[in-house]
Each structure stands twice: as structure tokens, then as C-alpha cells.
Design brief:
Chain lengths: 61, 263
């Protein structure tokens, strides 16, 4: 369970990193609360967490 | 279940590491992203004006001013009103902004430029905008990211405003976008930090899989040969393992060392 949780945590961080990278590359704006912070960051964290959890579950089998 | 899971993740060494690592990295990223935005960019010294209580709106006109316009290196900022048409700003570049308007007899105004990040005005620069006897007012500002131009890049939302100096009321404002571009698109401190962080987290996921493979491997694969036994020659059939004891008697205890036997 801890391995799956660790992978999910890494996925959350990776989702945030991807959104920040997209902002740094000029493809996404984080200047405004909506949609910048609320939509992109939350969506990136949730999707990253789900993907990380799935990968962690696959690896722990 | 949630409390138990949370408590378990905080107690378990690997689970706790994952839980607190998420919090630490996310907090560090947000603090770094927000804290590195310059609060006072390299603009000429001007009069500090309190922030407006209401959020900025594009092109709001008041009766006291008319013919308001702001140019960004000679180009009207209305041409960068959406992120797709943002002004490109190179590393270390200083931009000249000219605020112009016609005063209809109201109080003095100041020109202000604000950069927004996470919905907050983190950079605010003001310069006086004196009015000539003809009624034409002008404010000139030189703006750049300053020393942080080597740290930050990307898309940012800016608002140029004309503010009444006596009470801080926004007389007019217009929003536009800039795209700060670092050399080779990635050579900025925050981008390099993000790339390193992403690589570390990818390595973390990969090491999870490697740990599981090690855990599933048979013990013989990592214990190594027993000292004193030669490895079998290649091509020979391995010897069968010793038969397990049929009775349930405990294994023999090692004999105690003899005292003084060697003398």
C-alpha cells in the first residue's frame, strides 16, 4: 500500500510540475485564479495522482 | 479508514515519506513561483499608490479622462489583449511604456503597471503622469523583470492603469499579456528546478518498481553461494536440495565452544 501511495504522491507532484512547466513555456497562464490556479493546477494534481496511483498499483503486483 | 490510512502513512517510513514529500514539494514550488516574482521591478521611482479594492477590468473609462492609451515599445497594448498575442520579452530586456490620456479637469493621476500571478498583483510600479496645459497627460515608465529575468519566464498577465493620486481610485485600466522568454526556452532557474524535480519524481516511481522486483525475486538470487562450497561446473545437473526433516523436532542447537580446548 505504501508503494502505491508513494507513486500516487509522485504523480501529484509530477502533475503540478507539468502545469508549472507549461506556464514557464508560455502555453498556460497562472496569472488568474480562474482558470489558472483552480482549473489547471488542481486538474494537474488530480490527474497526476490518478496516473501515479495506477502506475504504482501496476508495479506493486 | 481515512484517519487510519493517514496515520499509517505518517508512521510508515516509505508511506510517510511520500505523504510529506508531496506537501513539501508542492509548497516549495508554489512559494518559489510566487516568491520570485519581483515586487518592485526595475521601474523609475514613483509614487506608491494603494492597490485597488476592485479587480481590474479592461478598458473602463471614467468621466475625468478620455483618449486613454498605453504603448509597449511603441505598440498599443490592446494588440496583446489575449494570451495568444502576448508581447514577447527577451531576457534582460527593458520595455518602455507610455501612458497617454486627455484630462478633462479631474484630480491628478498616476500611471501604474501591475503583474499578476495566482490572481494577486505581485508587482506594482507607478510613475507620475503630469498633465500639460493643453490637457494632454503623459506618463513614461521603463519596466523589466530586473534580476529575476534569469529566474522566471512564461506567460504573465499585466494591467496598465491610470489611478487618481488623491484617493487611489482606478480611473482607467486595460489588461494585456506578455511572454517572458529565456534563452533556449528553458534556461531559467525555475524551469531548471521544475525539470530536476520532475526527474526526481520519475526516478521515485521507477525505484518503486525496482524495489518490487527485488522483493519478488527468490532469496537465492541475492544471498550468494555458501562459503566453502564450490559452484557447480557449467552443464552439470544441480544437486537436489537436502530432504526436509520428517519429524517436528527443533533444529539442533550449536555446541557451546569448549573452554581451554585449544591449549
Amino acid at each position: 500500500v505504501s508503494d502505491v501511495g508513494e507513486a500516487a504522491g509522485s504523480g501529484v507532484v509530477l502533475g503540478l510540475v507539468v502545469v508549472f512547466l507549461l506556464q514557464q513555456l508560455g502555453w498556460v497562464s497562472l496569472s488568474d485564479l480562474w482558470p489558472g490556479v483552480v482549473l489547471y493546477l488542481v486538474l494537474g494534481a488530480v490527474l497526476g495522482g490518478i496516473v501515479g496511483w495506477l502506475i504504482g498499483r501496476q508495479l506493486s503486483r | 479508514v481515512g484517519t487510519a490510512s493517514l496515520r499509517g502513512s505518517m508512521v510508515h517510513p516509505r508511506g510517510g515519506f511520500a505523504f510529506w514529500r508531496v506537501l513539501l514539494w508542492a509548497t516549495a514550488a508554489i512559494l518559489l513561483a510566487g516568491g520570485l516574482v519581483p515586487t518592485t521591478a526595475a521601474a523609475p521611482a514613483g509614487t506608491a499608490v494603494p492597490l485597488p479594492s476592485a479587480p481590474p477590468h479592461p478598458s473602463i473609462g471614467f468621466a475625468g479622462l478620455e483618449n486613454e492609451a498605453v504603448t509597449w515599445n511603441g505598440v498599443n497594448i490592446s494588440q496583446a489583449s489575449d494570451p495568444g498575442s502576448a508581447f514577447s520579452v527577451g531576457t534582460g530586456a527593458t520595455v518602455g511604456l507610455v501612458f497617454s490620456f486627455t484630462d478633462l479637469g479631474g484630480p491628478n493621476v498616476t500611471a501604474r503597471l501591475q503583474a499578476f500571478y495566482f490572481g494577486a498583483a505581485l508587482s506594482s510600479n507607478t510613475v507620475p503622469a503630469p498633465v500639460a496645459p493643453t490637457g494632454h497627460g503623459t506618463g513614461t515608465m521603463n519596466w523589466s523583470f530586473g534580476d529575476f529575468t534569469y529566474v522566471l519566464q512564461g506567460l504573465y498577465h499585466l494591467t496598465a492603469s491610470l489611478v487618481y493620486a488623491n484617493n487611489g481610485t482606478v480611473a482607467w485600466s486595460e489588461s494585456f499579456w506578455i511572454n517572458e522568454q529565456a534563452p533556449y526556452r528553458i534556461v531559467s532557474g525555475f524551469t531548471i528546478f521544475l525539470l530536476a524535480l520532475g526527474a526526481a519524481e520519475l526516478y521515485g516511481i521507477a525505484s518503486t518498481g525496482r524495489r518490487n522486483r527485488r522483493r519478488r525475486a527468490p532469496p537465492q538470487s541475492w544471498q550468494g553461494p555458501t562459503p566453502g562450497t564450490a559452484p557447480p561446473p557449467p552443464g552439470s545437473t544441480p544437486a537436489p536440495p537436502p530432504a526436509a526433516p520428517t519429524d517436528s523436532s527443533p533444529p539442533p542447537m550449536p555446541s557451546p565452544p569448549s573452554e581451554g580446548g585449544d591449549s
